[in-house]
Amino acid sequence: MEQSFFFEICGWVASVTMILGYLPQAIYTIRTRDTDGIALPTFLMMGVGSIFFMLQGITHRPSPLWGLFVTNLITTTCCVIIFGIKVYNDYVNKK
Question: pTM for the full model?
Answer without folding.
Answer: 0.82
